UniProtKB/TrEMBL annotation:
Residues 277-299 are annotated as: Disordered. It comes from Bison bison bison (North American plains bison). Its main location: membrane. It holds the Pfam family FA_hydroxylase. It is found in: Membrane. This is Lathosterol oxidase. PANTHER family: STEROL DESATURASE. The lineage of its organism: Eukaryota, Metazoa, Chordata, Craniata, Vertebrata. Keywords: Membrane, Transmembrane, Transmembrane helix. GO terms for molecular function: delta7-sterol 5(6)-desaturase activity; iron ion binding. One of its GO terms (cellular component) is endoplasmic reticulum membrane.
Amino acid sequence: MDLVLSIADYYFFTPYIYPATWPEDNIFRQAITLLIVTNLGAFILYFFFATLSYYFVYDHLLMKHPQFLKNQVSREITHSVQSMPWMSIPTVLLFLLEVRGYSRLYDGIGEFPYGWFQLVASVLSFLFFTDMLIYWIHRGLHHKLVYKRLHKPHHIWKIPTPFASHAFHPLDGFLQSLPYHIYPFIFPLHKVVYLSLYILVNIWTISIHDGDFRVPQLLKPFINGSAHHTDHHMLFDYNYGQYFTLWDRIGGSFRNPSSFEGNGPLNYVKKMAEEKHNSHGGNGYKNEKLFNGERTKTE
């Protein structure tokens, strides 16, 4: 984040905001700047990519599902807007440690003996390391001792939209992001790669709430996409992973997505509409039990 901090200071904060007597490396000034930049960046990422996903990827037929809540989209947005500033506070403290030089982030490819190979390997290890920790953190948040207080607010959305991607209890949201921040304190990582991965992680989080299941056939057994995560919201104790199905398979919590089997929530809505059309009375679907709430686990 020191790259972002330097740019923000050079073009905005130093010439226009802070007094000349306040040095750029002052820890309090850095904390304030990081708090502003982190929140601004989070809101831009959230609204820009969630809006794109909502209008161009998300299938709006899902909004006709019986478990789609009244005014759900506005409620998801309100929840996210209220939560993100609180999530940013502990996040900024970790960013501050990075900026002050306590992490293993580096600038140049030549600083390590394996150069580009090490950079590519660090991306892969980042993904697998964070996926592993998020799996166990996420699964832990489903424990009965903490679920109702921390994670249940995110499970209000049984049929989530991309705007639900950041609609967490603040502590829940921070805990699930913690592996991303832990990694560069343990393993070397290029600063630009770290920033890029941080952005991509937020985009991925939005994408797995988009209700669209466009996973290439070859990758379906391995990638934990929106189909898996939709079932997680519906069925509660399956598919905790973030990117991959590996840890769900190891932990015995993997469930093949219902949409891959033709009985997901979108299939239910389409079948409901078809039966309504065929019956001309709208009553032909009343006894349908695909994802109408009877298959979801009581939380």
